[in-house]
Amino acid sequence: MRALLQRVTHAQVEVDGEVVGSCERGYLILLGVATTDTEAEANKLWAKVSGLRVFDDEAGKMNLSLKDVDGEVLVVSQFTLYANARRGMRPAFVDAARPEVAVPLYEHFCELAEADVRHVGRGIFGANMQVSLVNDGPVTIWLDTDELSRPGRHH
Predict the structure, then answer these.
(1) Which residue among 12, 78, 109, 145 is the active-site one?
(2) pLDDT by residue (tens digit) across 54-96?
(3) Is 130 noted as a catalytic residue in this protein?
(4) What Å distances lie between residue 19 and 29, 35, 109, 121, 122, CA to CA?
(5) Which of the following is catalytic: 79, 109, 125, 130?
(6) Is residue 154 part of a domain?
(7) Looking at the 3D structure of the chain, how many domains does it have?
C-alpha cells in the first residue's frame, strides 16, 4: 500500500463540480492499493500516518502528530501511485489492485482513520476527481508499506 501524504491547511475533492470530501488542518492522503495488499498493510500504514510527527510545536519544530493537533484527514484513492514507467512512455498499472480488492482496503483504511480522527473526508473510488489543496510547509511524505517493513539506516 502506498500513500502520498501532504500536510495541508485545507483540501477538498470535487466530482462533477460538487465537493464530496474535504478537510481542514491535517493530511490529504492519496492512497494506492497493490494487488498483494491486505488489511495488515492498511493497519500498518494508518499506524505510521497517525503517529508521524510532522506538525509544528510551539518552538516551530516538526514534533507533533495528527492526534496532537486534533487534525483532520481527506483520503483519496489513487491507483496511479502504482504506475510503472520503466519501459516506454505509457505507464503500466499491473501492480495496482483491481476494484474488488482495492475498494474494501480503501474503506478499511478510512475506517481506521475515522476511529482516530474527528473528521475524515473521502473521495469517490473510481470517479474522475478534482483535488485541490493548500500544502502547508510544504510538507509531502511518501510512504510505502513494503519499505516500512524493511530494516533501514538511521541517520
Answers:
(1) 78
(2) 999 999 999 999 999 999 999 999 999 999 999 999 999 999 9
(3) no
(4) 16, 30, 21, 10, 10
(5) 79
(6) no
(7) 1
